[in-house]
Amino acid sequence: MYKQLAQFFLIFFFLSAASFSVYADTEDDFSEEGEIEFIEILNGYMDVSEKFISMAGQQEAAIFFAIEGIVEIYEERNELAKAPQHLQKILKKYPDNKTIRNIVRFKLRDVYNDTGNSDLALKELETIIAEN
């Protein structure tokens, strides 16, 4: 999996570099300053990508990214109110992992608050306090 992610980011890098030259209209667009700025942006992206790849191998981090993705999909579908059911299943799957439970409860707090359920959001925060 990590090899595939690394290959993806490498391909993305080369495509981005190629698109930079395609969108340049004149030689002025290829100024050294512009090239340096573009390279700095790509370097930053690669740094973030490397951190993501290393974190994805850690259980809590991987679940955090998955939870973010789950909620994002519900948001894109305009079904954010359905996300708590999905997140509750994750809570049940990890009853003894305090870190994962905290991650899920913080996300539940966000979802409840974003859907106008501030009482449920407060309840999640109170549960975090009680469990820790």
Chart the SSEs and their pairings.
Layout: H1 2-23, H2 32-56, H3 59-76, H4 83-93, H5 98-114, H6 118-131
| Overall spatial form | elongated
Low-pLDDT segments:
none
pLDDT averaged residue by residue: 82
Question: Which CATH top level class of the largest domain fits?
Answer: Mainly Alpha
* Helix content percent band: over 70%
Radius of gyration: 20 Å
Number of domains: 2
Helical stretch count?
A: 6
According to CATH, what is the topology of the largest domain? Answer: Serine Threonine Protein Phosphatase 5, Tetratricopeptide repeat
Order of helices and strands: HHHHHH
Q: Please give the number of β-strands.
A: 0
For the largest beta-sheet, the strand count, sense and barrel status come to: none
Which structural class do you get from the secondary structure elements? mainly alpha
What distance lies between the first and last C-alpha atoms, to the nearest angstrom? 34 Å
